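In practice, a research group might receive sequence data for several interacting partners and want a quick structural hypothesis before committing to experiments. The following worked case mirrors that situation: the sequences arrive first, and a predicted assembly follows.
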Amino acid sequence: MRLTPGPARDIDLDTVDLFDLDLYGTGDPHPVWDVMRAKAPLHHQALPDGRDFWSVTRYEDVCRVLGDHREFTSERGTVPTHLGQDDVAAGVLLTSTDPPRHTEVRRPLGSKLTARAVKSWEDSIRRSVTRFLEPALDGEVFDLAEKALLLPAIVTGPLLGIPEKDWAELVHLTAMVTAPSDPHFQLGSEAATLAISHHELVGYVSEWVKDRRDSGAEDDSLLHHLMSVRPGGAPLSDQEIALDGYSILLGANVTTPHTVSGTVQALIEWPEQFRKAQADPTLIPNLVEEGLRWTSAACNFMRYAATDVPVAGGVIPAGAAVVAWIGSANRDSAQFAAPHTFDITRPNAKRQVAFGFGPHFCIGAPLARLTLRVLFEELLHRFDSLDLAGEPEHLRSYFIAGMTHLPITAQKRLTP
Amino acid sequence: MESAPQVVHPRRGGQDETGQRHDAPSGGPVPLVDEIVALWGELLNCPEIGAEDDFFALGGNSLTGIKIIERVALDYGVRLSVRDFYLAQTPARVAGLIKQGRSGT
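A structural hypothesis for the assembly, expressed as C-alpha cells:
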C-alpha cells in the first residue's frame, strides 16, 4: 500500500471493500481510512461469502478494542485472514489467549526480551547490521525490501537459537503466512499456502525441541527458554512451545523488514528529514518511532466482542468480529498533527501503536526498537544520500503493510 | 523441511500394492480411498464426507493436517510430504499419494 496517500477521492463507505487485496497491492487505503475516521468510525462490512466484520479506525477506539480483553476477546483468533474460523490454537497460542493465563505465560517469556535484557545484544546486532548494509555501498542498485526480509533472521537467528542454514526457508515460510495471496509466496490456494506454512513452521519448532530433548543440550537461546519456563508452576506443553515458538518467529520476521523499507522510502521522499537526522544523530530514536508510526507494518489485529459493546457511536453485537486498524490509528489527526507528513521531530511520535496496545503489545518491541535504532545509526553514518532506482512494489496483503521490492542506490559518505 | 513421501514401518499390515486391505471386516476389501474418507471423517469430526470433498471446505487446518499425516505414517507406513498433502486437498488424491509412496514412485 502507498504510505504517502494520493489525493482525496470520493469514497462510498457502503460499498468499500477493506479486504480487496488490490487496495493494498497497488492501491491507496489511507484516503479510505481518512473518510472512515471522519464519517463512520464504526464501520460494518459484509463479504460476498456471508462473513462480516466491524472496523474501528480512530486512535482511541483502536486502543480500546486492543486494550480491553473483557469486552474484546483474543480467544477466537486475532488475524483477519482467519475471519469466521474459530482459532484452533485458542488458549494455547499466547497471542490467542486472554488474561489471566496470558499474563502468567507472558511474564516469564518477556523477561528475556526487556530493553535491559536486549541491550547486551547491541554489539552483535551492530555487526550484523553493518554486514547487511555493506553491499548497498558499492553504488549498484540494492533492492532493500527484498534484502531486508532476511534482516530479522540475521539479527534474531542467534538469539532464537536457529542455525543460519535454516533462515532463508523460515523467512519464506513466515512471508507465506502473512501474504498467502501474494504471487511471490502463494502455493496452490490461499488456504493451502496458509496450512503449508503453519504446518512447516510449527513442525520446525517441534523438531528443534525434540532434538534438544534428545541431546540434553542447554543454551541461552529464546527457544530453549520456552522449554524451561514454568508459568503457574508447570512447564509449557509441547504444543504451547511449538505454537509460541512459531509466533515468535513470525513476529520477528514479518514486520521489521517492512518498517525498514517504509522508513527508508520516507527518508528518500523527504530528503530534508534525512539531512536533519544525519546532522543530529540524537534524533534517531525519534526517527525510529516516526518510522514505526508511518509504516505500521502490522496493519490491523482482530478481536471478537464478548457482549454487545457500544463503541464510536454504535454497538458491536456480541460475538461479532472487529478489526482494529492500526495503520489508520497512527494517522489519526486527533492524535498526530498533520498525520500524513513524515516528521522525525514529531513530539509525540512515541505514542504510535505500531506494536499494538494493551496486554498483547508486541513482546519483541524492545528488540525491534534496538535493531531499528542501530540500523539507522549505521545507515546515516555510512550513506551520504539515498535515491529510488525503480518503482516500489507493495505486498498484496490486508494484514501486513509492506513492500516486496524497493530498489535504491546509495552514495557513500566520504567524511563520516 | 520438504521431502518426497517416505516409506516408514506401518503399524498394521495386510495391504497390497493396489491399496486394498485383505483383512477388512464384512467380507470384501475396503478400498484405500474409503479408509482415507473414514480417517478424515474421524479427525475432521465430520461424518458425511465424500472422496472428492475439499479439505479446507470441510474445515481442515494445519493442526488437523498434522494429525492426518501422523496417522497415515502409522497406518500405511508412508510419510506424506506436507506440501503434497495440502495441495492434494481431497481424500481421493491423498489415497493416490499413499499408493505412490508405497510403490516407491
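Before designing any experiment, note the following. Residues 62-76 of chain B form the longest helix (15 residues). Confidence is low (pLDDT under 50) at residues 12-25 of chain B.
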